[in-house]
Amino acid sequence: MALLARILKARLRPAPERGPWQPRPTDARLPARARAEDKGAGRSGAPRAWGRAGGPRSLAAMPGPRTLANLVEFFWKDGFSRIHEIQQKHTQEYGKIFKSHFGPQFVVSVADRDLVAQVLRAEGAAPQRANMGSWQEYRDLRGRSTGLISAEGEQWLKMRSVLRQRILKPKDVAIFAGEINQVIADLIKRIYFLKSQAEDGETVTNINDLFFKYSMEGVATILYESRLGCLENSVPQATMDYIEALGLMFCKFKTSMYAGAIPRWLRPLIPKPWREFCRSWDGLFKFSQIHVDNKLRDIQCQMDRGERARGGLLTYLFLSQELTREEIYANLTEMLLAGVDTTSFTLSWAVYLLARHPEVQQTVYREIVRNLGERHVPTAADVPKVPLVRALLKETLRLFPVLPGNGRVTQEDLVVGGYLIPRGTQLALCHYATSYEDENFPRAKEFRPERWLRPGNLRRVDNFGSIPFGYGARSCIGRRIAELEIHLLVIQVGPGGWAPACGLGFV
């Protein structure tokens, strides 16, 4: 049986490295620094819950790496490229809650499933993401608006309310399946072209680049309601410029970490991180603005002719007038930035894992053929018919989350793990560490998609050991788009769908 990596063969590249982390309801809140019973104190590996006086312990008593050692680790040894490894190392050394200094920033890391759940379930209506001062500083410098990722408070609530009406629920994004399938068809054509150019006539070596361009084309089709030409043999220059800016942001994502960690007074001595950070954002905003303006001109021309403007997300945002044009620029720029890596990195890891586990590949193939057929072009309604494809995605994201953690800033005093965490403290929720805990996932280091097939597991939202898209009000608003792009592609180009008929396979 021919299943996508005879094209990958023995030269399948490992998937790209992950970037750094961005990132009981009544018991978790502590309005008066006195109430909040710590529910995680008695668990194995949890820190001592209370001090000698019977109350929560202060941050001064919390373990963690020394400031100088942390500076050496991250700035001298390039730790921002290895945050997932350092996260596990510090969890083993200091326990499931510990403190760290990153330059001028102080962070409390939480690497326990139940404590993560406690923090997230305590959130209010507008949770605050981890400190994104460098993002805000750039926007202030250039006179740009914030988008859904960088906004906070009432501004964030307004934007979330507007955008959630179109892309938050599965039924809302199901209408995009046709556009995504067209992009998948172009990807398959591109694969055939690259195979024809290969020395052996069948091996495609850089699948990471292919998936990057597929993801960018797919999400841009939804956001801008237009094609970018990423998968053409001759890519438009404007698209190439954007890919370069996007690549700078992703491949050197640690630059943004350095930009936020280096104090302003040091920038004249260490100018490169901030300069590259601004340059990449300049390119992203410029490209987004061009495509938004082009589409809005088309919509306005339709209206001027007395025609009814029809379209998707961008058309809705323009006609509703609930967001300013600057807010539209910012939101589409940030959503494209967030949407590309979520899909492309995950696809690369999924293909890698299937290539390494042919027995899983065969099982996925048989399910697709049995439930959908070999030549069926799937729609969103077909995805629930192949639960193993959905399980494959969940297991891939458990082992290789796009970001190994998530960030929050406490909006009230909390007691977490027996420690009093004052309001305004940055928290790093260490999802990578929790996803590799055997107590959360038996035989956690093994690739076992079937673990998600137990009754109800595919629909559960409360398994805080692995929440790659976040949780609650501040969860990833583009999750359903990313899932649809990945599910449809795996069905068609992966071990089933068109792949056997085309002679493509995973090796």
UniProtKB/TrEMBL annotation:
Q: Could you list the residue ranges forming a coiled coil in this record?
A: none
Q: Which InterPro entries match?
A: CYP11_CYP27_families, Cyt_P450, Cyt_P450_CS, Cyt_P450_E_grp-I, Cyt_P450_sf
Q: How does it sit in the membrane?
A: Peripheral membrane protein
The answer to whether the entry has keyword RNA-binding is: no
Q: Which segments show compositional bias classed as Low complexity?
A: 44-58
- Superkingdom of the source? Eukaryota
Main localization is mitochondrion
Recorded GO CC terms: mitochondrial inner membrane
What PROSITE patterns does the entry give?
Answer: CYTOCHROME_P450
Cofactor(s) the record lists: heme
Q: Name one Pfam family in it.
A: p450
Q: Could you tell me which SUPFAM superfamilies the record lists for this protein?
A: Cytochrome P450
Q: Which residues bind heme?
A: C476
- Region (Disordered) residue spans: 14-58
Q: Which GO terms describe its molecular function?
A: heme binding; iron ion binding; monooxygenase activity; oxidoreductase activity, acting on paired donors, with incorporation or reduction of molecular oxygen
One of the protein's GO biological processes: cortisol metabolic process
Where does it localize?
A: Mitochondrion inner membrane
Q: Which PANTHER family match?
A: CYTOCHROME P450, CYTOCHROME P450 FAMILY 27 SUBFAMILY C MEMBER 1
| Family in the record | Belongs to the cytochrome P450 family.
Query: What is the official name of this protein in its record?
Result: Cytochrome P450 27C1
Tell me which species this is from.
Eschrichtius robustus (California gray whale)
